[in-house]
Specification:
36% helix; three-stranded parallel β-sheet
């Protein structure tokens, strides 16, 4: 059709992402896909190569990286306001799966706990990948190796619903992730702490419009959205007036704005506005490689496993 769509959004169970994305790419459509990108990094790499071969835009919905105040954190860290990053501590506990298992009537629980539909990992892939991307968005650091313990509670579960993961990033930066979907009393409790040698930055999803910044031997400061003291790119992503909480919907809007602004610039033959970004297919492949390394570490008795990032080209 002459009036065909500009891009497709894929928001289906995990085991369908690869086939749907591949089909649309082969027919010349740009893609925005829910994470995980595919069921394996090999499939993800194939999609990445296909998108590049056909010069198509491919986004992945790592939502938490697009809260307005996360952009402020990214700029502050990039400009050295907390010095060199030394330590990263994060957690993402939920209790929805514990509730669903008790009720035995959740469609979400049925497919998200089935490895044939969900994939090789549960909580680590479902919410740990969000931590992996959000930290990368804030710091620019990629994980080099992991030591993971993936828990199945109860043991009859087919895939993990709780995990503790030790991390080593570029430049020897140390880190730790805790993810859980059976932490009773926690709904969506993302907490990210970045420690540098001159200060620290903390973001708590319970207060999504607020960033806690502490400089060495100084009192803590609170940064909030839609204020003149924010960096320009953070101000550009502020959507509502100061004092009103910017949350999940605004994060999705920022992500899609970045995707659409970049796509429009592509159509117009212009450079995209650098204030607006989105997670791309490379980020999606990195997320899959992170999960695979964690699963391998757990299976081998909780040992350090390096994340392999080969540079492959399309055939």
């Amino acid at each position: 059709r002459e009036d065909r769509i500009d891009f497709v959004t894929i928001a289906t169970p995990n085991n369908t992402h690869y086939a749907i994305a591949k089909c649309f790419l082969e027919h010349g459509f740009h893609v925005m896909c829910d994470k995980p990108l595919a069921m394996s990094s090999q499939e993800g790499q194939e999609l990445k190569c296909l998108a590049r071969e056909k010069n198509l835009q491919f986004g992945v919905t790592f939502t938490y990286g697009y809260y307005t105040i996360i952009e402020q954190a990214r700029q502050m860290i990039a400009n050295g306001e907390i010095g060199d990053v030394k330590l990263i501590m994060t957690e993402y506990p939920q209790d929805w799966l514990a509730v669903a298992l008790a009720g035995e009537d959740s469609d979400q629980a049925m497919w998200r706990t089935d490895p044939k539909i969900s994939g090789i990992s549960g909580a680590t892939a479902d919410i740990g990948s969000h931590l992996e991307y959000a930290v990368y968005k804030m710091t620019g650091l990629k994980i080099q190796k992991v030591l993971a313990r993936l828990n199945k509670i109860p043991e009859t579960m087919q895939i993990d619903n709780d995990s503790q993961i030790m991390l080593e990033y570029e430049n020897g930066v140390k880190g730790f992730f805790w993810t859980s979907q059976i932490a009773i009393g926690r709904e969506c409790a993302v907490l990210i702490r970045i420690y540098g040698d001159k200060g620290s930055i903390e973001w708590n999803h319970d207060m999504p419009s607020t960033l806690r910044v502490t400089k060495l031997d100084e009192p803590p400061q609170l940064y909030t959205t839609q204020r003149s003291f924010l960096y320009d790119s953070a101000q550009a992503q502020s959507r509502i007036c100061a004092g009103v909480i910017e949350g999940y919907y605004e994060a999705f809007a920022n992500m899609y704005r970045g995707y659409c602004q970049t796509l429009i610039a592509r159509y117009m033959g212009e450079e995209p506005d650098p204030r607006y970004t989105f997670a791309d297919v490379e980020d999606g492949v990195d997320g899959l490689r992170f999960v695979e390394a964690c699963v391998e570490s757990d299976k081998k008795g909780n040992i350090w496993v390096e994340i392999n990032r080969p540079e492959l080209t399309p055939e």
